[in-house]
Amino acid sequence: MTAKNLTRPIITMIQHVTEAQREFPGASGDLSWILSGIELATRIIQSYVRRAGIGNVLGTLDGTNVQGEVVQKLDVVANETIMRCLGYREIVGIMLSEEDDEPNVVKSPGAGGKYIVLFDPLDGSSNIDVNVSIGTIFSVLRCCEGVPEAKGPMPHILQCGTEQVAAGYVVYGSSTVMVYTTGDGVHLFTLDPSIGTFVLQQENVRMPEKGRTYSVNEAYFATFPVGVQKYLSWAKTKEAGGYGLRYIGSLVADFHRTLLKGGVFLYPPTAKNPEGKLRLLYEANPLAMIAEQAGGVATDFRGRILEKRPEALHERTPLLIGSAGEVARVMKFVS
Ligand code: P6P
Predict the structure, then answer these.
(1) Pocket test for ligand 1, best of 123, 129, 255, 316 (most atoms within 8 A of CB)
(2) Does 71 or 104 have the greater pLDDT score?
(3) For residue 164, is pLDDT > 80?
(4) 7-28: per-residue pLDDT in tens?
(5) How far is residue 294's CA from residue 130's CA, in Å, rounded to a whole number?
């Protein structure tokens, strides 16, 4: 009897991560346990996002967060959801959220806390009330060996992006899509709402080498570095061959398009944000790991994002990320 001609298999994210971990002899499965916590949290968050207008989670709470930004109720829900889904997983030692001034040390490395999860629980939250795509971004580091307990959490958190053991994001768009890497390619899953599970859509996603799309907020053109102004002016010329501008104003959505379609996303230094606006630890680093794993490039207009030595929890960085060929073209104007 011949094998039935099977249609495409249904592979869930947890199944995919678990099978990937089998490739690494001696892998404890800890990482898949953390990623399953993140996956659970993002399924809960999306349930709130999908009924934001109904479930009394729109609008803002009094006060602002550590970024000085007005806190949207959904930010709080997302932050608390991730804390609850991860905080009780015994191998999670430290959590750092964009929403909180200080890290949350749930178990010190000496007491068995093995991993650090850094995240922006709901990026682009200013777009919530107008129904524009928003997202969750996460980065996973391993706690450093041999750091005296007295040093506290900072030496474990302030590691270069090259030390990430996993990174990813979820974009709550026309569908809910999860993209992650553990350093062995970039894999894309779509949430099937009928079964409430992320299902594999594409393994080893590759970012197109080129792309005539630039994504930048040109309202700040006047205070961009001259080289960036020159690139943007060149891109509008007939000689450039027809560039398009796409800017959603939601990092995860703008990056996701760049990952799939190519081009570049730029958030250069501006007068308002001389060091750029985006956060190194839980925005630029995870997206840079994804970009590089997919064949793209991520820089701060000077050097490689992943090699930046962080000095503060919520430090900002300029960001130029996207197709290798297009980033190189921008850098020719900049340098
Ligand atoms: P601007 C959203 O507030 C965010 O943090 C990112 O998601 C987005 O890429 C950026 O800020 C947009 O900033 O200055 O263009 O409004």
Answers:
(1) 123
(2) 104
(3) yes
(4) 778 899 888 988 887 776 666 7
(5) 31
Contact 98, 124 (CB under 8 A): no
- Between the CA of 252 and the centroid of ligand 1 the distance, in Å, is 10
**158 pLDDT exceeds 70?**
yes
Q: Which residues contact 22 (CB under 8 A, 6 or more apart)?
A: none
Nearest-CA residue for ligand 1 atom 1 is: 249
Pocket of ligand 1 (CB under 6 A): 123-124, 126, 217, 249-251, 254, 277
| Cα-to-centroid distance, 128 and ligand 1 (Å) | 13
Q: Is 97 helix (H, G, I), strand (E, B) or coil?
A: strand
Q: Which residue has the higher pLDDT, 121 or 29?
A: 121
pLDDT at 27: 67
Atom of ligand 1 nearest to the CA of 254: 9
CA of 249 to the centre of ligand 1 (A): 5
Residue ID of nearest Cα to ligand 1 atom 4: 124
192 and 278 part of one domain: no
The Cα–Cα gap between 163 and 44 comes to: 29
- Tell which one of 272, 277, 282, 319 to mutate to probe ligand 1, the residue whose CB is within 8 A of the most ligand atoms: 277
Which residue's CA lies nearest to atom 10 of ligand 1? 249
Domain count, the chain: 2
- Give the model confidence (pLDDT) of 36-67 as tens digits: 999 999 999 999 998 877 766 666 677 777 77
Determine the structural domain holding residue 69 and report its residue range.
3-202
Query: Which of 181, 202, 223 is the last residue before a domain boundary?
Result: 202
CA 10 to chain centre: 25
Give the whole-angstrom CA distance, residue 268 versus residue 319.
Answer: 6
Q: With 60 as the cut, is the pLDDT of residue 197 above it?
A: yes
Atom of ligand 1 nearest to the CA of 278: 5
The pTM score is: 0.93
Same domain, 254 and 182: no
Q: Rounded CA gap, 158 and 13, in Å?
A: 29
